[in-house]
Structures are given as C-alpha cells and as structure tokens.
Amino acid sequence: MAEQLTGLADDRALLGRTSTAERVSDILRSRIAEGYFPPGTRLSEDSIGGALGVSRNTLREAFRLLTHERLLVHELNRGVFVRVLAVEDVEDIYRTRALVECAIVRSLGEPPYGLGGLAEAVAEGQRSARENDWQGVATANIHFHRELVALAGSHRTDELMRSVFAELRLAFHVVDDPRALHEPYLGRNQQMLEALRAGDKREAEQLLAVYLDDALERVVEVYRRRVGEDG
Question: Which are the contacts of 211, defined by CB distance < 8 A and separation ≥ 6?
C-alpha cells in the first residue's frame, strides 16, 4: 500500500485548486485501471485522503461514485474495497466491449484514420514484452482499446468505456499466467492496426470480433478454475 500511496501523492497536483469528488474519482479510477489497487484491496480514507490532500467528505463522495460504477464495494463495519468480479461480470464486460468497440470500427468514415494513439499502444506493449513485464503488456492492451474507442470522437463513449476498462483490469488480476493470456494479443493488435492503416475497416472489425470472443473464452476459463480452487 505504501507504494500506491506514494503514487497518489504524485497525483495530488492534478487536483488543482478546485478539488472535487469527480476529479478524485477520476484519479482513483485511473489507478485501478492501471493495476495499482488489486481486487479486494481495502481503501483507507485516512491514507488516501492524506495522500491526495482532500477532505473525508470529498473522498467519501468519490468512493460513492466509484461504487456506482461497480469498481468499489462498501462492506458494513469493514470499509470500502476494490471489487472482486464474478464470472458473470466478466462475461458482461466482454459483451459490452463487443457491442461498443465493433460498432465504432464499423462506423468509421473514410480513411485515413488518426492512428497515432493505437500505434503508440502497440509499441508500448512490445516494449513491455521485451522487458518480460506482462502486467505492462496488459496495461498497453487496455491503452490500445481505449485509443480504439477514441476513434469515435465521442466523449460520452469514452466515459462509458473508461469504467468498463477499469473493471476489465480487475478481471486481469485473477489471471495466474499473465504472459499466456496477453502475449497472443500483441500480434493481434498489430494486425488490427495494419488493417486500419490500409483503410480496411471491415477486416479490422472481423479481427476485433474474433479477438474479443477468444479473450472472453480465455479469461472466463481462468475465472471458473480459480473460483473452483477458492470454493
């Protein structure tokens, strides 16, 4: 927890002079999405409030917002925890991703597309793989799909998927072999990028649909096995 709190203290400057619960929730959501707070982590009001320099009331409102987004849970007399997903949650996340991401690619206009963010996410994943940092590869993969969603040019869609991707990171924490899960998608992200560079959005959508189906099957398989082990 000490390392995570140090990172939050660095985020304090992002709050500026107009600190609000929404901005605090943005920071915590991003930290959850980046893997700083694994599922089941208890979030201390005193420690986090001190790291960010915000009042208890502001922090509680931020917790409430993130609880509404299903990223946190409040347990009576115990406190606030990062949510642990069920298998059904994982299935729903991937259904939502398929509906939104495939529709975005399908509805792209005429090429060329603004693919700088996607290209950087691919490069980020490849760098992490060379360093044998498979959690970094997972983060790069989320960045890739966040940039894919951004191609829609819709703030509402970005906001919707921001919490979905944060939930997705919670699912990744259950995976006991992150390399086996994430390594195959390095090449698949590159394939989607190349299809979009060629202006072939139909091919990119087909690649994406198969990608999401395969990812769902692999993550759910791990979830079911881990639930059985813990049961």
Answer: 185, 188, 192
